[in-house]
Amino acid sequence: MGRFIIEGGYPLNGTLRVQGAKNAALPILAAAIMSEGEITLTNCPQIRDVDNMLEILGELGAGVERQDDTVKLLPGKASRSVMPNRLSKELRSSIFMLGPLLSRFGRAVCTYPGGCEIGHRPVDLHLRGLAALGAEVSEERGRIICEGTNLRGAEIHLDYPSVGATENIMMAAASARGDTCITNAAREPEIEDLQNFLNAIGCSVWGAGTSTLYIRGGIEHIPSAVYRIMPDRIAAGTILCGVAAAGGKVTLCDICCDHMGAALSKLREAGCLLDQGKDALTIEMNHRPREIKLIETYPYPGFPTDMQAQFFALCAVAEGTSVIVENLFENRFRHCAELAKMGAVITQKDRTAVVRGVKRLSGANVYARDLRCGAALTIAGLCADGITTVDNIELIDRGYQGLDDMLRTLGAHITREDG
Ligand code: EPZ
Fold first, then answer.
1. Residue minimizing CA distance to atom 31 of ligand 1
2. Which helix (H) or strand (E) holds 334?
3. Residues 13, 248: contact at Cβ < 8 Å?
4. CA of residue 161 to ligand 1 center, whole Å
5. Ligand 1, pocket residues at CB < 6 Å
6. Which of 39, 84, 179, 234 has the most crowded Cβ, counting Cβ within 10 A?
């Protein structure tokens, strides 16, 4: 088990280009299996979740090549529609392989992706959506089996704007006969990136970014395509939280400020100076963070749940008291116990936590219990007195392309010890 070793007290200064978006790359890699041409993805983040997805595509028979952040796929060589057990368990989000595999092969089988660190993570909305398109969905011995060679377009209303369910249905609907309309669809920017990719491979999808999505079905031939993954708004927000907590002045390049409204608004409330460009942003912080009174997570464009833990670390050293409410996942406060080891003053009950900021946290040995918890503990280590070790950094590597390298580039005293 690897660890970060962080000596706190050093501000962050400099310029950094942000990685491609994990939560756009994963569904786009899944969608690629629908094509029989050659798919080239650029700005594809070099992270463990992408590694796992590439391994899944390889085990399905697709040709896979990677050179830094460029991935070349030959999905035409794929011949299997049964997902490898181990990988589909390890990578929860492999569930949205069901739609594209169904679209390509008329059949898809994957291991039931049980809960994970942050919650139960049901997939009922995915399965109901695929069934509405005419797929036969069954579950046996922990596996989900979807069959249907004659999918037909449908009007599908999602009880909840699930990101993954929206993506799964979009991909399956592309090859259905007739048109599909999804209402109460997720509005996350990653949905728009998937829409743009699907249209680049010959589909006809529109409405992404709104709650109503339209998919023209019946795609036949899917050509080759070259597509650039959008910037990672959560990786960008994580670095910005680091500057807000540790102080300094940093410019982030190749980001999309329009995707980060909720987080940027909370950084301004904490007293950060933000200078926004179209695809770059400079943040400056030269005092203790001011109080952020309330953070409530919501589906996009509300405050992102994937930024909750990182802001929690910021609030732990802010001047006042913050109330943080996690509305999406039932177990996404696992960073509380670890931050408390560093001296954070937290009261938490169910999905609400109250954190009273302290002037300085103290370095401690802490443990990354999930991806964003690990990012939060790393931020806390940057502004703690003394040395902090963050164990289990393999979880951090799932979503960040070298979080330690990024922070070291900006002047943080952080090293990695591989376990
Ligand atoms: C995506 O997960 C992201 N992952 C998550 O990012 C992110 O936190 C989440 O969207 C919300 O923004 C990827 O895109 C790979 P959901 P997903 O379906 O699709 C309930 C990270 O840290 N739900 O929108 O699984 C579910 O229980 C990860 O990068 C159902 O009830 O999220 C949850 O309460 C973590 N039934 C809520 O919806 C379903 O069938 C949000 O889930 C599906 C979901």
1. 122
2. none
3. yes
4. 9
5. 22-23, 26, 93, 119, 121-126, 160, 162-165, 186, 305-306, 328-329, 371-372, 399
6. 39
Distance 308 CA to ligand 1 centre (A): 14
Of 56, 232, 310, 328, the one to substitute when testing ligand 1's pocket (max ligand atoms within 8 A of C-beta) is: 328
Nearest to 375 by CA among 350, 401, 349, 355: 401
For residue 164, the CA-to-ligand 1 centroid distance in Å is 6
Global model pTM greater than 0.90:
yes
Q: Which atom of ligand 1 is nearest to the CA of 120?
A: 27
Burial, 114: exposed, middle or buried (Cβ in 10 Å; 0-12, 13-18, 19+)? exposed
Name the residue with the closest Cα to ligand 1, atom 4: 23
The answer to whether residues 213 and 194 touch, using CB atoms and an 8 Å cutoff, is no
How far lies 36's CA from each of 63, 67, 74, 173, in Å? 11, 21, 7, 18
Q: Which residues of 339-350 are buried (b: 16+ CB within 10 A; e: fewer)?
A: bbbbbbebeeee
Give the nearest ligand 1 atom to 119 CA: 27
Report, as residue numbers or ranges, the catalytic residues. Answer: 116
pLDDT 10s per residue in the chain (419 long)? Answer: 899 999 999 999 999 999 999 999 999 999 999 998 999 999 999 999 999 999 999 999 999 999 999 999 999 999 999 998 887 777 887 898 999 999 999 999 999 886 678 888 899 999 999 999 999 999 988 899 999 999 999 999 999 999 999 999 999 999 999 999 999 999 999 999 999 999 999 999 999 999 999 999 987 767 789 999 999 999 999 999 999 999 999 999 999 999 999 999 999 999 999 999 989 999 999 999 999 999 999 999 999 999 999 999 999 999 999 999 999 999 999 999 999 999 999 999 999 999 999 999 999 999 999 999 999 999 999 999 999 999 999 999 999 999 999 999 999 999 999 98
Q: How far is the CA of 7 from the centre of ligand 1 (A)?
A: 34
Pairing of strands 212-216, 180-183: antiparallel
Residue carrying the six token digits 């943040």:
283
How far does residue 123's CA lie from ligand 1's centre (Å)? 9
Residue in the block written with tokens 């969608």? 31
